Write the structure tokens for this entry.
Amino acid sequence: MKVLIVTEKPFAKIAVDGIRKEIEAAGYEVALLEKYTDKAQLLDAVKDANAIIIRSDIIDAEVLDAAKELKIVVRAGAGYDNVDLEAATAHGVCVMNTPGQNANAVAELVLGMMVYAVRNFFNGTSGTELMGKKLGIHAYGNVGRNVARIAKGFGMEIYAFDPFCPKEVMENDGVKVVSSVEELYQICNVVSLHIPATAETKNSINYNLLKNMPKGAVLINTARKEVINEGELIELMDERNDFKYITDIMPAAHTKFVELFAGRYFSTPKKMGAQTAEANINAGIAAAKQIVGFLKDGCEKFRVNK
Ligand code: 3PG
């Protein structure tokens, strides 16, 4: 059995070593395709793979067609919008993710981005503090939960909206539950996005939602760029020079944001929320274990396709 690690954005070496150890201990072989620049390299590498570990790498119908021996794809991470689930099901391929494994890394970046925003991008001018400010967590999954835990240490007042999370879970964490997404944005000085990119959420963060945020508002996006209606965010930031947007996923209109909103817009050059040695080890080794469990015992825990 051959397990292929496909990472355009590589894991830390220590994580690759850990994955290798798990896979080889099960008697399987490991292949590695890192930093590829061309889809043809991916199509060639998957030809004889029985299992694949990916990050944000795109697994579409063409890749699945080329991977004739494939049984399982594990996305070492949370979001699996990069995998064509229907095509995988049609090809008889199981798809899994590794929920929670990189959540703390992303949450720590969120708090770092918040401090960066309220301290005016460390430019030496007087900023504000996070203590006592209202933080809105938009979707209370693994990352949202970790953001709440850390933000408590900063003395923030925490609100959350998540129709899929039981109220009690949020309340037990000392988080105030709001009943609509509009309410969250109306109340909170800072909103941190943790929604997945789905047909329902794409473009959903729009002018009408953001316009009611309080003066000096900060929007933090470590989720997906697709959830933002970029045209409407530009319109809003044009009208409101108090509004800041800090993102870990470079918008399609990045150049425009840079030109128009100096000092109020920041994007990392490449998504780095989960880019820590710890998160790479946690997610990578979880993926390796899930593959071994699936191939040896048929364990389908964390399967995300039908
Ligand atoms: C995730 O969905 O787990 C995060 O967005 C991290 O993605 P990455 O593995 O591509 O850094």
